[in-house]
Amino acid sequence: MHQTTRTMPAHKHIALVAHDSCKPDLLRWVQENKEKLQGHFLYATGTTGAMLSKQTGLAIKSMISGPMGGDQQLGALISEKQIDVLVFFWDPLNAVPHDPDVKALLRIASVWNIPVAVNRASANFLFESSLMSKDVDIEIPDYDRYLAERV
């Protein structure tokens, strides 16, 4: 597929997701990075978003719970170019019933070439990058061209 460019704004749209066993780690990371996160637009799956908002006071737009379709809602926002960064603290040692949704979310983040942090270390590296506070051009699939060639 051909590629095109889109510009991520300096104020990023960031999705925050965590499996149940990783929610305490994500909460601690968000608390430690609250000042950095305040300058961005935050989204989360339902349970994670409610917990983070209550514990940190951050404004977070919550989807429904991940197993009920929240992962898919975030995936749709990614494909609509409305999410710039995914922070997903997932548990690689425990299978979850909605594992296909989790894989689909990670796959769509890769398709649309957005940065993904999957644990504290990768989130720290990502948020220490100077690119987090700048407009950034990224390559994405040129879906309009794809359609034009098929129709």
Describe the structure.
The chain has about 150 residues and is of the alpha/beta class. It has a single domain, classed as 3-Layer(aba) Sandwich (Rossmann fold). About 45% of the residues lie in helices and about 20% in strands. α1 packs across α3 and α4 runs parallel beside α5. The longest helix is centred in the last third of the chain and has 13 residues, at about 100-110. It is globular and about 50 Å long.
Helix-strand layout with pairing:
Blueprint: E1 3-8, E2 13-18, H1 23-32, H2 34-37, E3 41-44, H3 46-56, E4 60-62, H4 70-79, E5 85-89, H5 99-111, E6 116-117, H6 120-128, E7 136-141, H7 143-150
Parallel strand pairs: 2-3, 2-5, 3-4, 5-6
Antiparallel strand pairs: 1-7
Helix pairs in contact: 1-3, 4-5
CATH superfamily assignment?
Answer: Methylglyoxal synthase-like domain
- Gross morphology is globular
The total count of strands amounts to 7
Structural class: alpha/beta
CATH topology: Rossmann fold
Whole-number tally of structural domains: 1
Largest sheet: number of strands, sense, barrel closure: 5 strands, parallel
Provide the residue-averaged pLDDT: 95
CATH class: Alpha Beta
Which architecture name does CATH use?
3-Layer(aba) Sandwich
Q: How much helix, percentage-wise, in residues?
A: 40-55%
Short description:
The chain is α/β, with parallel strands linked by helices and 151 residues long. It has seven helices and seven strands. The protein has a single domain (3-150), classed as Rossmann fold (3-Layer(aba) Sandwich).
